[in-house]
Specification:
The complex is a heterodimer of chains A (about 375) and B (about 120). Chain A has about 375 residues and is mostly helical. Chain A is built from 20 helices and no strands. The C terminus of chain A is likely disordered. The two termini of chain B are about 15 Å apart. The chains are: A mainly alpha (about 375), B alpha/beta (about 120).
Chain lengths: ~375, ~120
């Protein structure tokens, strides 16, 4: 057979494979659509009952009874939606949904599925249990942080955030390093959801953890505005050996915003050996007023380092008339290096004001 | 006369829940599923209070609140923001556009009703 004939056969084969794939995708889509339509059809008449159940100040026995007695085929169609409702309401409404799910055996089934062989089943079970936000499941989630599958570990971390138990802080932070890790972004969100209750353990980890753990601990302490951790953050901002941790601690201090925190920022803005850390401190000071702040930023505006002077000029635009006064004085002396930064910052601030927008310039540390 | 409340949320479960609960508590309720519909309903019905979700399609609850405050016909309307955005800056932005209260999701329907009652009582004084 000639080369041309071989080519034609190969072309036909490829076309047939492509056609088969297209048909397969169309069938899969059609099945999904039919399944969704069926679920909607079953769920539509049941929604008013779920709404009544959630809205009632006392248990609506009629609605509960009807939903508990639903045939399994109908219940399975609406069960994911019932679990999803728990992410929208709390208090009595959530208790009513919780009671319904228990009566239907959905909670027991989810607990069983946490030990399923399939990773998707395990992850889904954790997602469902997490929506109940019950402390009694925290132990299961903490164990699942060591699961072989990354999606299961992620679901467990999110679940621990929803449960909000301060004792889960150490296991969560333990997951940012090692063989079976979870993304620091997911861990950070989970820790932030735990809130100020996480501050004590985070403050300890800020001193003793790995670089990544210390950085994450500082970031979360800032996000939750943990004033109780101000001393630990100040210690990290001044003495942590890693520049990235010091910079993150400085940003966190800016968010904590106590007088002592501002004092630390004033020191670091002048004395830290690393430019990115000083820049972070200057940026953080932009959110706080006071004569000490203006004086420190004025000094930074005259710094020989381009980045420090530039960031200080931007920070001064955020300090109202006092900051503007410093910039105008500097801009009037073109023989100084600060004049260029001041002129640019004033022009940018005026433009922002004309356009009615908040200044968006930031320095990446 | 019963107070009128506008509920604007793109989540049908939350819309229906609040409509049911508020109606049950004696309020007259209008619902909207996105920002522009909320704005149109606010101008048409002049509700006493608007419950606005922040993350709505087309136009956010923040933009709706800002527009309501800028219009002299709706500037005095009470506004309660209902949102899953819990960051300090988000809350500050909510109050920055003139919200009277800010409730985080997941929320307690009973608590939300109490807050609505408190705002309306304060305004009535």
């Amino acid at each position: 057979m000639s080369f041309a004939a071989h080519s034609v056969i190969a072309l036909y084969a490829v076309a047939i494979v492509v056609m088969l794939l297209v048909i397969l995708m169309a069938v899969a889509r059609s099945v999904r659509l039919r399944r969704r339509t069926r679920t909607e059809r079953i769920a539509a008449p049941l929604r008013p009952m779920l709404i009544r159940l959630m809205a009632a100040d006392e248990i609506d026995e009629d609605a509960l009874e009807t939903l508990v007695r639903l045939p399994d085929s109908e219940w399975h169609a609406i069960e994911p939606r019932v679990f999803a409702l728990l992410d929208k309401v709390r208090g009595r409404a959530a208790e009513a949904i919780d009671g319904l799910l228990r009566s239907r055996g959905a909670v027991a089934r989810s607990l069983d599925e946490t030990t399923s062989r399939g990773a998707v089943k395990r992850a889904n079970a954790i997602v469902r249990l997490a929506s109940l936000r019950r402390r009694e499941y925290a132990g299961i989630f903490e164990r699942m942080l060591q699961d072989a599958d990354k999606d299961v570990r992620r679901a467990a971390a999110v679940g621990l955030g929803k449960v909000g138990r301060p004792e889960s802080v150490a296991p969560l932070l333990g997951c940012v390093t090692g063989r079976r890790t979870v993304s620091p972004l997911v861990i950070g969100d989970a820790l932030a959801r735990i809130g100020p209750g996480a501050a004590e353990t985070l403050a300890v980890m800020l001193k003793s953890g790995t670089l990544l753990q210390r950085k994450l601990a500082a970031e979360v302490l800032g996000r939750v505005g943990a004033t109780s951790a101000e001393t630990a953050l100040a210690g990290a901002a001044r003495t942590d050996p890693a520049e990235k941790v010091r910079a993150t601690a400085v940003e966190a201090l800016g968010k904590v915003g106590t007088w002592d925190a501002v004092d630390t920022l004033l020191d670091v803005a002048v004395a830290d050996p690393a430019v990115p850390v000083r820049c972070a401190a200057i940026m953080a000071l932009a959110e706080h007023s006071g004569t000490g702040v203006v004086a420190t930023l004025e000094r930074a505006l005259g710094d020989n380092d381009y980045d420090i002077a530039h960031v200080a000029a931007y920070a001064l635009t955020q300090l109202g008339l006092a900051g503007r006064d410093v910039l105008e004085r500097a801009a009037a002396r073109p023989e100084l290096s600060a004049a260029g930064h001041a002129t640019e910052a004033l022009a940018a601030a005026d433009l922002d004001e004309q356009l009615g927008r908040r200044a968006t310039r930031r320095v990446l540390v | 006369m019963a107070a009128t409340v506008l509920v604007a949320d793109d989540d049908p479960d939350i819309r229906d829940l609040l409509e049911f609960k508020l109606t049950h508590c004696g309020y007259k309720v209008h619902v909207a599923e996105d920002g522009p519909s909320a704005l149109a309903a606010a101008l048409e019905y002049k509700p006493d209070l608007a419950v606005l979700d922040i993350m709505m399609p087309v136009m956010s609850g923040l933009d709706v609140a800002r527009t309501l405050r800028e219009n002299h016909e709706t500037a005095a309307m009470s506004i309660l923001m209902l949102t899953a955005r819990a960051q300090e800056s988000d809350v500050a932005r909510g109050f920055g556009v003139g919200a009277d209260d800010y409730v985080l999701k997941p929320f307690s329907p009973r608590e939300l009703i109490s807050r609505i009652e408190a705002i309306l009582t304060r305004v009535a004084r």
